Amino acid sequence: MLPVASRPRHPVSVSRTGSSANVVLIVLVLLLSGIVIFQIVSSSGGSDGERTVTPRGELADVEKSQIAIHRSAAASVVHVTSLAERNNGLFDPVVVRQGTGSGIIWDAAGHIVTNYHVIERANLWKVILHDRTVVDAKLIGTAPHSDIAVLKIKAKKSRLKPIAVGTSADLQVGQNAYAIGSPYGLDNTFSTGVISALGRTIKARTDRRIRDVIQTDAAINPGNSGGPLLDSAGRLIGVNTAIISPSGSSAGIGFAVPVDEVRRIVPQLIKFGKVIRPGLGITVLSNSAMDELREAGILRGNGVLVKEVFSGGAAEAAGILPTRQSDREILWGDLIIAIDGKPVKENGDLYDLLDRYKAGDTVTVTLFRKGQRKDVRVTLKDL
């Protein structure tokens, strides 16, 4: 008999079966490892740097609102370039760029509102519309004391989208504010912020004061001048005019002429080419000259000294006296110290008070004459 150990036994076949199971197990492990590696590679972008896009979901409500404001108002904002043609008599005229800024389409007739300082010292103006169309513009009128000017262009009405106009009397500090313009020539730039303060006073190019100016922290840079300041309804609430910045760029303090003032001025510029202001028909001594007289002890107290009285003017009819020169001395004129009971401390006060009236209104002017107070009634006339 053969030894028992030499007989074929079932464990041989069991060993083959176990080997097959091991192979299957290894294959499964490799497949699973491949799937895991594939997922890791897919999520990390792979060796070629590709990435899958992560869905973002809905825009925030504030983003939707700002997008809507920009889409609604952007077509009403233009880029303004001021040019000056110079001729020295020897060569062909040379056109020199004087400056750039922004402008606002005011109406379907093609009137463009901008800042006076954007168009001054120029005699040629170019306007670039939202669709990149370039058109010539002509000057209609200026209000230097308020830093406002009006140009006019000829363009298809389909290209003229007038700005939506709001009010400024009911603004509140903390409201959202948006500026559109061409800072540094980068047209259609949109910046956001809030109304930082109201009732500010700044100086115009003429040294006259612009009152009730809106302060905002929306980024305003050179080139934004003449562009719109908008509220959250996309309405015009001011015309951006100035910044306070040592570097000349936005420092979060920008100013806009309030739209209520713009609405008062622009119709007059379109109709007359200038603002028709009521006045007394006088010239007054400058504030610096008044300070010198006070330091010398010649004059005392606050007030505005009448220098000249124009023939046929309101002051002449009321008997207001000018400053005169006699053979031996200066005969000082009347010192205006109040209008309708409101104090006049210096020239700016006088101009601000008179701007509240219209031609034909009668006011009480309080004078200081020869050491005594005197009230006179004056009917204002157009200047």
Features:
about 375 residues, alpha+beta, Thrombin, subunit H, Pdz3 Domain, 3 domains, six-stranded antiparallel barrel, six-stranded antiparallel β-barrel, elongated
Count structural domains. 3
The general outline is: elongated
Instruction: Report the CATH superfamily of the largest domain.
Output: PDZ domain
Q: What's the CATH topology name of the largest domain?
A: Pdz3 Domain
What proportion of the residues form beta strands (DSSP E)?
25-35%
**N- to C-terminal separation?**
144 Å
Please tally the helical runs, counting DSSP H or I stretches of 4 or more residues: 7
Biggest β-sheet strands, sense, barrel: 6 strands, antiparallel, barrel
Count of extended strands: 22
Written overview of the protein:
The protein is of the alpha+beta class and 383 residues long. It folds into 3 domains: 70-159, Beta Barrel (Thrombin, subunit H), CATH 2.40.10.10; 176-272, Thrombin, subunit H; 278-382, Roll (Pdz3 Domain), CATH 2.30.42. The chain has helices at residues 10-44, 61-73, 116-119, 259-272, 287-295, 314-318, 347-354, and strands spanning 77-86, 94-105, 111-114, 124-128, 134-143, 148-153, 176-181, 189-203, 209-216, 228-230, 236-243, 254-258, 278-279, 282-284, 304-309, 324-325, 330-331, 335-339, 342-343, 362-369, 372-379, 381-382. It has a 6-stranded antiparallel beta barrel. The protein has a 6-stranded antiparallel β-barrel with strand order 7-8-9-12-11-10. Strands 14, 15, 18, 19, 20 and 21 form a 6-stranded antiparallel beta sheet that branches. It is elongated and about 130 Å long. Residues 1-16 have low confidence and may be disordered.
